[in-house]
Design brief:
5 helices, alpha+beta, 18% helix, 28% strand, three-stranded antiparallel beta sheet, 14 strands, eleven-stranded antiparallel beta sheet, Multidrug-efflux Transporter 1 Regulator Bmrr, Chain A
Amino acid sequence: MKRLLTTLASSAPLLLGACTLFGIPGDGEDMGAVRTPELVTRVGGDRTAAIEIVNGQYRVGRSLIEAPLPEGYPEPTPPGGIDLKKYPSVRRAEFSRSGSADRGMNNGFWPLFNHIKDRDIAMTSPVEMDYEGLAPDGGGQPERWTMSFLYRTADLGSAGSAGSVMVVDTDAMTVLSIGLTGTYGLARVKEGMSQLESWLAEHPEWTRAGSPRAFFYNGPYVPNARKWSEIQIPVQSMDASPSSDSATREAMSAEVTDSGAEADVPRLD
């Protein structure tokens, strides 16, 4: 057991390797995956890329997600696709520091691991990494990084300080997201950011509204070629007031051409 925990701690983003310690089902068991078309619109990248749900698990090709997502989260973006997505507030345990973000994925493991272990909170997917102050061109290191474990529901535990971990309820947000496969880390984040920034440059009706973040869906035992991730940038429609929920929904309503294809200005309900 000690060797297992040591391995998990040194394999960071992949904290999902700890799932077995919390009794989370593995491959082949129902994770309650559901389609959420009302929260996701394909706006770029590979428009034919698609997920499927098999036995209650999200899958795409040979990649799959082995743990449940928080309640209300939209379905994952498949590798190659670029989506606009709406996320609800979620309760999460955060560990924040400055310095190397890749080393931080190791350093954040034990505080977060012990937090959910002590509170008997089951592991979910994804593990989230936020990169505060990371330049739009992806150059350099972020000024600060935050690693988070997500609670399945907001009524678990309570918000507030818990030693070196902070439990917070996040704000709802709209993001531009790209799905990827491959090794986890800052290099993967920068790869995704480059494609998202190109999309934003071509769609001035949307603007950045926060720092980039990464979703890491798989554990260290998953081959790199099958590791599924998303890189996301919070965005806001230039037509919407930040305080206007109805305006935001209107700005994201789908415009469909006569042929049924999405218009150049992507919108969704």
